[in-house]
Amino acid sequence: LIRSGTLPQEIAVLGRNRKEMDPIAGALRDAHIPYIASGGVSYFQSPEVKDAMAMFSVIVNPDNSLALLRCLAQPNWRLSPLARWELNREMLRTGRPLNSLLRSPKSLGFLEDVDRATISRVVDRIDQMGAMALAETASTVFWEAVRETGYYGIADGMEDLQRQQVGANLYRLADIIEGMGARGEIPSFGEAERYL
Fold first, then answer.
1. Contact 166/74 with Cβ under 8 angstroms?
2. Burial profile 151-168: b = 16 or more Cβ within 10 angstroms, e = fewer
3. Rounded to whole angstroms, how far apart are CA atoms 166 and 169?
4. Helix, strand, coil abundance in the chain, percent, nearest 5
5. Mean of all residue pLDDT scores within the chain
6. DSSP per-residue string spanning 127-155
7. Number of CB atoms found within 10 A of residue 16's CB
8. What's the pTM?
9. Which of 80, 155, 162, 182 has the fewest C-beta atoms lying within 10 Å of its C-beta?
10. Please, are residues 63 and 184 in contact by the beta-carbon 8 Å criterion?
11. How far is it, in rounded angstroms, from Cα 24 to Cα 15?
12. What are the two backbone dihedrals, phi and then psi, of residue 32, each rounded to the nearest 5 degrees?
């Protein structure tokens, strides 16, 4: 089909179950053809989708410590591995949510200056995106979160096919969100996060 001029985004392959689709996905990957797998576990287990879902959770509920810790590994919000480990240890020691620790600069003296500066910026952006989520569509907030965390930067070191796959997965998630909004099912960002 592609050799005859059909664009990849105009082609659909349907299967009954994941067992049928795995060899097809493998063949597409081997042929360097980007694809979007709908359904099944693999789509929602891809790192870029898990990171986007973590961002959704943090914007709606900044006290989701696991989601926030995952966000602190994304490009523009990245803390050093040691800082993430120390913050996790401090959460366990004090029983405080990560968001609470990050908002107490005096309690972060054990971190390097560069990590504390990143934390200050992250806290401000979480608050701004939380406010944005009250006024904007879920799709608008989604793309702002992707831009803000620098997630696209994560694909810079990837091979072409991997980069296309990451982009396809993020666009698929955006399509899901936009489709819910267009049908009037998910008018707010918080409802989109709960739905997904």
1. no
2. beebbeeeeebebbbbeb
3. 5
4. 70, 0, 30
5. 81
6. HHHHHHHHHS-HHHHHHHHHHHHTGGGGG
7. 7
8. 0.70
9. 182
10. no
11. 10
12. 60, 40
Give dist(CA 120, CA 16) in Å, integer: 48
User: Is the separation of the CB atoms in 180 and 139 below 8 Å?
Assistant: no
Q: What is the model's pLDDT at position 127?
A: 92
Tokens linked to 147: 């831009």
Tokens at 31, concatenated: 């042929």
**In the block, which residue shows the tokens 């992250």?**
122
Tokens of 128: 């701004």
Return the structure tokens found at 53.
């879902």
* Sign of the Cα pseudo-torsion (46, 47, 50, 51, in order): negative
Tokens for 43, please give them: 């789509």
**In residues, how long is the chain?**
196
Q: Is 188 within 8 Å of 133 (Cβ atoms)?
A: yes
Place of tokens 């831009």: 147
The stretches in the chain having pLDDT less than 50 are: none
Return the closest-CA partner of residue 171 out of 31, 9, 4.
9
User: Could you report how far apart the first and last alpha carbons of the chain are, in Å?
Assistant: 33
